[in-house]
Amino acid sequence: MLSIQNLHVSVGGKSILKGLSLDLPQGEVHAIMGPNGAGKSTLSYTLAGRAGYEVTEGTATLDGQDLLSLSPDERAAKGVFLSFQYPLEIPGVPALTFIRTALNAQRKARGLDEIGAPDFLKLARASAAGLKMDFEMLRRGLNVGFSGGEKKRMEILQAVMLSPSLLILDETDSGLDIDALRIVSEGVNNLRSPDRSMLVITHYQRLLDHIKPDKVHVLAAGRIVASGGPELALELEREGYDKYGIAA
Amino acid sequence: MSLASAIRTRDLNELPSRRDEDWRWSDLKALIRVMPDPSPAVQTAAANPALDGVDAARILYINGRLVDGDRIAIPATGKGAFVRRFVSATAQTAHHVDAPVEVGAGGRLLLIDSFEGQAAGYLASTTGAIRLGEGATVERIVLIDEQEDAVSVARFEVQLAEGASFSQTVLASGAKRQRFETHVAHPGGATLRLDGAYLLGGARHSDQTTVLNHEGLSGLSSQLVKGVVADRARAVFQGKIIVAKGADGTDARMGSHAILLSDRAEVDAKPELEIYADDVQCAHGNTVGALDDAALFYARSRGIPDLQAKAMLTAAFVGEVVERIGDEAAREMARAWVETKLAGLV
User: Is the predicted ipTM greater than 0.90, yes or no?
Assistant: First the structure.
């Protein structure tokens, strides 16, 4: 269960989140929708622990444990995974090496043994096949020369292999054509599980046609201003964000 | 003016100083106030397990003397692989050695040159002419693993013939003052790769200086020098390319890129192009910066701890140089060497 209470965050001295509160029970999928500049990416970076996102007030806990005092890698080991809106390219580090390093670092932090090379490769092959990815791409530098869709697929592949308990999807639909959107959404839907919560952050409703949320929250001007069922996303699609005081 | 002549004559005035333009970042005169005694003859040196992975004949120099093996002379169409160690074994002494290499027409040579310090505060000077006959191929990997309070200067003159191919990768971890100079006479119609990497911490200094003369038609050259500098260390890269009049069709590429891991680390890079021919392609790029914060955060957000993420990203950065090594065993050896050095920096 992710619980955020009265979260205030500044970036470069500018106040972006202004008292955001949100409860995401285990096993549920919540969407956060909002206009540009509402603070959607700030929320995802703050939860992942990026430097420069200064929490001035409020709390965020995962299963009762304070997240905000942990380093980004400690949060990952606790089960936080952010699927980036703009995944980074890391030349010289093959995707397989990157993911294996991450997986073993997380296992080590949890007091588990490292995963051996044969088991890891088996997991990688099965996970890549599930996302219809060419396995050879995993031998190349991570995301180097990948299309937008391939990068997003690589994010989901990492999520599948790292198996987080909290998956934050930051604008995962951006830059995807309809086929890529379907494949990525299928990958995400396969990750739905009673032990995993998901926060789907998006500007547009179309992603929610593929990933059905249990709840929808509207983020505007740094706060959750409305919450409801999936029908709220459709209403936003029809009527825009105007009634929340900010134009889309 | 050189460390070699200063050691030979015991005259400190022979040392190059900051007044010499190409020594301004690697001043020896201000550094060396007393010429140490000549290094004594020593017959044995501790083994170097870092070199074990390469299947090659061994040549051993200790304190500037050849103690095992012979000078390298590959006959025409011959083939050879050598690991040549230059060991400084006696503290507070000075030595110089000339170690030439000859490769006949069509010959092939894999050469690993390992500079090793096994004592404190020595001065070591090494020179050598490397001559390649027509169509000869040489791949050379240089490992510089000197003591932090030592001075080590090497200068090699490479002479290429038509159709020859010379590939060099210098991996340096610096010293109190450490300089590796490579001068290449490129007749055109030959292929040259002149790479380097430096991995520096503490108060170490490392200088890679190259002077490349493109003298004939259609010469190819490619240079990639990358480095990681931590603490108060200082790296120098001076890369001069001269394309002579008439050396048309020359294609020369040079890249120099560094990552600084601390505010007090320093890189002095000086690419110089002197072009006297008309139809020439020359490109050079030069960057110095910090480790990419966004990439670091990305890796950490996946659970990789800070130090491990930095080590991974810096190894990948320098890895581009190592990946250009053609010989597989030598490449593996170089990769392990770089990893070991980086582990001490980040």
Answer: yes
